[in-house]
Amino acid sequence: MDAVIRFAAWSRIALALASMTSGTACMKSFRADKVSAQPDSSLIPPAPVDDPVPGTTTARPQAPAEPAGPIAVPSGPIGTPVPWTVPTTPVATAPTNVVAASFPGATEGTTQIRVVALIGSDIVITDDEVWQMVRQRAGDYIRLAGTERTNKENEIFREELRKLIERELILSDFIGKIKKNKPTVLEELREESARSAQKQVREFKKANKFPSEDAFTEALRSQGLSIKALTRQLERNAMMNIYLGQFLKEKGKGASLADLQRYYAAHPDEFSTEDRVKWLDLFVSFRYFENTVAARQHAEALVAQARGGADFAKLVSDHGHGDSKLRGGEGIGAKKGEIQPREVEATVFALKPGQVGDVIATETGFHIVKVLEREVAGTRPFDEKTQMFIRGKLAAMIQKTEYEKLIDDLWRKTTVKVIDVP
Fold first, then answer.
1. Smallest Cα–Cα separation from 170: which of 117, 251, 247?
2. Rounded to an integer, what distance in angstroms lies between the CA atom of residue 64 and that of residue 153?
3. CA 354/CA 207 separation, integer angstroms
4. In the chain, where are the structural domains located?
């Protein structure tokens, strides 16, 4: 179970880093009195599922099964969850032309795929597509049981449904503008999104070390996913991020030096620093030498090499006897009181970046340390690095506000009907 949660956590982080923007969505009351222009239904197909067998009734389980190893599918900009707003408009009737499709492990008599949201007149989101997103957050509920687990799953379902609705609102707006202003670019956009999706699929396979294509496919099937479904989600997210990247790029510019200075003065806590150090550690153990004198001589020879310009990490790899070899030479601890072993702390904090200390004796051997980075307690100066940090933070704040305004506007202009949520 811990492996499953670690896998899910890694996947969510990777996808969050891949997103070009993030923001907190504004969930507004649904309105039925305004209908958006109909987007091209060929560009926004129904949620992907395995092709049904002709002439048969196919079905799927209602609730998600416990995942065997989550494969994350991005569901749009990731932000702080917003409470679900129950629609005040009458519940819509699901379109009659939505076809249920097969689902791994489905049996006769299980609940068929349901449409849970209708955007405009022809964009549908099914419960199957939402559950695909829920399963990627298994770490949030996998250790829960009974009613507590059900409630958590339902909460996540609503959050992921909101993200999917927002994604389709953004894509509908984007595609509509392209068709109006630069219709020839549409095919290029599709191709670029497809390339991005294929690249991410390759990265998933490589990062999770699937031994074969069949193993990857089986991992997806165990979660009710398919290559087709995964690829579609990645393609649509890539397309959305292209639009948001263009839309928000200019919005975050324009902060003046005075703006930066005001932020710096108003947020002193953000620029206070503690004594911190990043350092390397090479341990020479007594037990590999006839006596302590021989061990010290070997350690001092290594100090001479390190001070002479030798690659310290390579010295650790070739001559070290401690576990720092497993960390590329990195020492344990960054703040005072955290440094291990404690005998080296005074030396570590006395050195400047790039310096190598003298041999330090401990009960079991000798340590040689090199400081890579040093941060002294105080206040970060208002230098170029700090200004870049503030500029980036202000840009992110502006972009978040602009994203919320965009979503708010799209909710007002488009009829969104939530048909059924748990």
1. 247
2. 9
3. 34
4. 2-254+397-418, 275-376
Which residues, 6 or more positions from 47, have their beta carbon under 8 angstroms from its beta carbon? 124, 125, 126, 128, 129, 229
Min mean pLDDT across 157-166, 191-200, 245-254 is at 245-254
The pLDDT assigned to 250 comes to 67
**Per residue in 121-130, pLDDT tens?**
888 888 888 8
Q: Is 175 helix (H, G, I), strand (E, B) or coil?
A: helix
Does residue 396 register a pLDDT over 50?
Answer: yes
Q: Which of these CATH numbers, 3.40.1130.10, 3.40.50.10420, 3.40.50.300, 3.10.50.40, describes 275-376?
A: 3.10.50.40
Rounded to 5°, the CA angle 163-165-171 comes to 100
pTM: 0.52
Give the residue carrying structure tokens 């030798």: 310
Task: State the residue for tokens 């927002």.
Answer: 166
Q: Helix, strand, coil % (nearest 5) of the chain?
A: 50, 10, 40
pLDDT tens profile 145-177:
999 999 999 999 999 999 999 999 999 888 888
Alpha-carbon distance of 4 to 234, in angstroms, equals 21
- Phi, psi values for residue 270, rounded to 5°: -70, -15
What is the reported pLDDT for 252?
A: 59
Tokens, residue 180: 């109006």
The three-point CA angle 239-242-245 to 5° equals 150
Kindly list the distances between the CA atom of residue 23 and the CA atoms of 103, 298, 413, in Å, as whole numbers in the listed order: 33, 56, 20
The mean per-residue pLDDT over the stretch 168-196 comes to 88
The closest alpha carbon to 158, from 63, 79, 229, 86, belongs to: 86
Q: What is the full DSSP assignment across 73-126?
A: ---S------------SPPPPPPTTPPP-B-TT--TTSPPP-EEEEETTTEEEE
